[in-house]
Amino acid sequence: xxxxxxxxxxxxxxxxxxxxFLLIGAGSMFxxxxxxxxxxxxxxxxxxxxxxxxxxxxxxxxxxxxxxxxQRLLSKMDQLDPPKAKDASEKSx
Length: 93
Hints:
Blueprint: H1 3-9, H2 17-48, H3 51-74, H4 77-80, H5 84-92
Keywords: Membrane, Transmembrane, Transmembrane helix
Protein name: ATP synthase protein I
Pfam families: ATPase_gene1
């Protein structure tokens, strides 16, 4: 089935494989950033004997960093999947 077949039938074309890998990568990247933040915080707490302070602060920094990475990564979705409304308005003209 080609891309033009989806236009004629009115169905949405399936996601491109690159977009699927991008979404899988976004979830794993977010999780790894949070886990890395907690591990670094735990190690710093063990070194300086300040039990919850570095664990919580590095976990929070990992969460914030993960959100920023996800935003940057998902902004690339617009480049991979152009908007459909623009195509429809061009056809009507």
